[in-house]
User: Which sequence fits this backbone?
């Protein structure tokens, strides 16, 4: 077919944790050359600790940290696919010099440290753009690159709070809740990909790079648009409504056969409502005065949920989904992690890639949230070990000899084994 | 820094978009394209329009087909024309618009537009550079292709929802339309990717966005943890009640060693500084319940934002649960002018979230959403040569629509 979508685009990746690594994972899957930069004292937090303390909650394959725990953590293995890995001590003058040479050789620098970290290292936008005026610097930060809270720290879970998402997530009339999935991270990962494409288009037009300033709090607040307008126009403060919906009824998850098995059902139109009555074998429900029209159904949704649950309780969650969908009713089994990797639909779409990771074993990898008809994604390649590509990148790209790199390893400016306290 | 290139225009100022999509994800993606300066023409069914026009809440707290908060938010900076795509002559009008467009976004059931002669194959024959973006619940292929979706369905089947909520309750949906918005973000980025490819390599293509795929990527822990032998579960909340709301103090694992004594001093518990139950992150996690009761006693007397600022000043990773009301007055959000007010002759002044990211010298287009068919004259008469009689027919449709 055609060449990989982003072939020839070189990314200098200083990201860590989730939002940034997710963006660069997608860039790698679409063919960009991603060079991940860590150091022997400061690894991507995803790798966990060099020395695993008792009570460490990170997930290792089979619960075993192994000889190189930093190369085996679930989060690292999952988020750092399709990348090369280089270690450089950015606080050391020689490390900094090499880093700036990489800057000169790359199209994009992307990082999601606390906002001030790169400036403190003397590697902020001003400094790196001087070395490479065509560089696009993607700065993902919790609060944005400006403003009184620019140096505040965050995690996905605190962003869900400060951006308002937690205020509308929770059981009906219950307290706010976070997602346990650090939801802003994938959202920002997806968004920064599109932002970068926009910056590349800008560079094509103007010949210049730029700083792309992305505040995770702002991009998460974008998920509350209609609630912002509702408050602005009507003074209404949105709260928690559980699995219910402003317009749709019935709307929720319904318990099925098995331990903690559920199916989500959402009915918006009259056709879907009639389909539901048919599917559960109770066509008369459509004539029940409690459920005659949407407004009465809303008033009596507890009763309705009970009737539906009596039916779902006797069936498997997938069976409920298929029966309802056969009647034109939106429904989906609530899948857990091990079910998603077995799901026939995702399998048929080629969504999962089987990856054989030399230190973590064989597993199924999530891929891209899009399919392009003429520009297929690449196959997932295993997440690199720490410093795995030092010789390849410092030698191949920067032209250092093997003995020069050996010296750097000797000085701990680069290397593959992290400091014990890292 | 001023841009000295004479082509100092918005990033997508040369791009024309046809937005045939309805609901949340497709329109959200198209809104972003409009924000970057593309001309986005929304094609809606005469009489009713995008079904999100019927979605609550309504501004002014009463039903008005032009007053949905959801529709308004999702359709800023767009133009609206009305066409009945199931009428062959109007489908032909759409074809003529598509011939001159760069991007088409649609969200119909797979195969429906094809049946009207408006599928990717047909349109790419008249415009090979067209980027044709389909945003559907399950995508263009696979056994669930024809199944229907919704936000809660996507969050369920994609594996996101299972771990949301608390252990003793059912799985919980991430609130609002969060799943659908995320699918829209993915559609936006994929569209920008396809445009980048077109800029570089010269061809258009069909972009397939499946809500299930997007949610399966958005679950960032479950599938991998489960495979590594750690079954994902719903977990109790770690929020603590402040005087006027909720905070997560972030004192269990996120605290540097040097910060801990300061935190103890602040909470008025100097005896905890050297207590081995709390001196390391691991110890604090192991004794989190006891720690929580001390923190709760302190937090309970203070306003949530005060706790947030006080603890952040100590470099802890603290959060407070902002409501939409809090967001609009957050000093950070205000300082960055994230929310923008749009004056709307029909709806009055309204605050909208602004740019999702910023680049020097680039502005984000944000103007009021279009009334249904507001730009029929400009587009259908001006570009396609419709007569006033044709417009009248459009405004007074006969027969019914199908295919949604």
Assistant:
């Amino acid at each position: 077919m055609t060449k990989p979508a982003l072939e020839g685009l070189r990314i200098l990746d200083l990201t860590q944790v989730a939002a940034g690594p997710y963006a660069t994972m997608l860039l790698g899957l679409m063919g960009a050359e991603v060079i991940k930069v860590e150091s022997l004292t400061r690894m991507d937090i995803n790798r966990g600790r060099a020395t695993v303390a008792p009570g460490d909650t990170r997930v290792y394959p089979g619960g075993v940290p192994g000889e190189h725990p930093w190369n085996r953590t679930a989060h690292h293995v999952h988020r750092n696919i399709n990348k090369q890995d280089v270690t450089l001590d950015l606080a050391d003058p020689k490390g900094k010099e090499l880093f700036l040479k990489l800057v000169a050789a790359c199209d994009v620098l992307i990082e999601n440290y606390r906002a001030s970290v790169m400036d403190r290292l003397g590697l902020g936008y001003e400094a790196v753009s001087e070395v490479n005026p065509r560089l696009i610097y993607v700065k993902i930060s919790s609060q944005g690159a400006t403003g009184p809270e620019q140096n505040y720290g965050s995690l996905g879970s605190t962003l869900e709070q400060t951006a308002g998402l937690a205020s509308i997530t929770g059981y009906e009339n219950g307290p706010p809740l976070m997602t346990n999935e650090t939801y802003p991270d994938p959202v920002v990962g997806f968004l920064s990909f599109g932002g970068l494409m926009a910056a590349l288009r800008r560079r094509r037009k103007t010949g210049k790079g730029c700083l792309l300033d992305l505040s995770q709090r702002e991009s998460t607040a974008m998920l509350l648009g209609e609630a912002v307008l509702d408050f602005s126009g009507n003074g209404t403060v949105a709260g928690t409504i559980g699995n219910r919906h402003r317009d749709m009824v019935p709307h929720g998850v319904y318990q099925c056969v098995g331990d903690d098995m559920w199916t989500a059902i959402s009915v918006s139109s009259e056709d879907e409502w009639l389909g539901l009555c048919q599917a559960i074998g109770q066509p008369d429900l459509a004539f029940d005065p409690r459920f005659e029209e949407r407004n009465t159904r809303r008033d009596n949704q507890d009763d309705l949920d009970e009737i539906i649950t009596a039916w779902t309780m006797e069936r498997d969650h997938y069976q409920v989904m298929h029966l309802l969908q056969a009647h034109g009713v939106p429904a989906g089994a609530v899948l857990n992690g091990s079910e998603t990797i077995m799901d026939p639909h995702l399998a048929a779409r080629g969504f999962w890639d089987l990856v054989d990771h030399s230190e973590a074993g064989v597993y199924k990898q999530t891929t891209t949230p899009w399919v392009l008809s003429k520009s297929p994604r690449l196959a997932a390649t295993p997440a690199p070990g720490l410093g795995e590509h030092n010789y390849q990148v410092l030698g191949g790209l920067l032209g250092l000899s093997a003995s020069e790199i050996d010296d750097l390893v000797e000085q701990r400016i680069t290397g593959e084994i992290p400091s014990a306290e890292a | 820094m001023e841009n000295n290139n004479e082509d100092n225009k918005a990033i997508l100022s040369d791009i024309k978009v046809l937005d045939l999509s309805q609901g949340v994800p497709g329109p959200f993606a198209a809104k972003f394209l409009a924000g970057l300066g593309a001309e986005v023409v929304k094609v809606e069914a005469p009489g009713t329009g995008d079904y999100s026009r019927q979605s609550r809440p309504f501004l002014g707290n009463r039903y008005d087909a032009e007053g949905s908060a959801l529709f308004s938010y999702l359709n800023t900076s767009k133009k609206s024309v009305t066409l009945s795509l199931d009428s062959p002559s109007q489908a032909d009008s759409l074809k003529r618009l598509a011939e001159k467009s760069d991007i088409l976004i649609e969200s119909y059931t797979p195969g429906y537009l094809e049946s009207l002669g408006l599928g990717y194959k047909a349109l790419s024959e008249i415009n090979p550079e067209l980027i044709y973006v389909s945003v559907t619940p399950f995508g263009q292929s696979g056994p669930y292709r024809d199944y229907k979706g919704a936000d809660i369905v996507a969050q369920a089947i994609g594996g996101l929802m299972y771990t949301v909520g608390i252990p003793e309750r059912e799985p919980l949906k991430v609130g609002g339309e969060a799943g659908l918005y995320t699918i829209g973000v993915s559609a936006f980025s994929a569209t920008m990717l396809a445009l980048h490819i077109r800029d570089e390599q010269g061809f258009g293509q069909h972009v397939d966005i499946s809500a299930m795929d997007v949610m399966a990527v958005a679950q960032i822990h479950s599938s991998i943890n489960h495979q590594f032998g750690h079954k994902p579960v719903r977990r109790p909340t770690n929020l603590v009640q402040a005087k006027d709301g909720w905070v997560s103090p972030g004192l269990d694992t996120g605290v540097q060693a040097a910060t801990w004594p300061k935190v103890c001093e602040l909470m008025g518990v100097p005896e905890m500084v050297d207590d081995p139950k709390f001196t390391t992150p691991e110890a604090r996690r192991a004794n989190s319940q006891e720690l929580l009761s001390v923190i709760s006693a302190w937090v309970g007397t203070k306003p949530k934002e005060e706790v947030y600022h006080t603890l952040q000043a100590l470099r802890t990773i603290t959060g407070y649960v902002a409501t939409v009301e809090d967001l609009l007055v957050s000093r950070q959000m205000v300082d960055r002018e994230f929310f923008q007010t749009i004056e709307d002759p029909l709806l009055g002044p309204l605050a909208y979230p602004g740019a999702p990211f910023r680049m020097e010298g680039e502005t984000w287009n944000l103007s009021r959403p279009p009334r249904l068919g507001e730009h029929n004259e400009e587009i259908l008469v001006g570009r396609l040569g419709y007569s006033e009689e044709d417009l009248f027919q459009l405004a007074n449709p006969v027969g019914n629509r199908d295919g949604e």
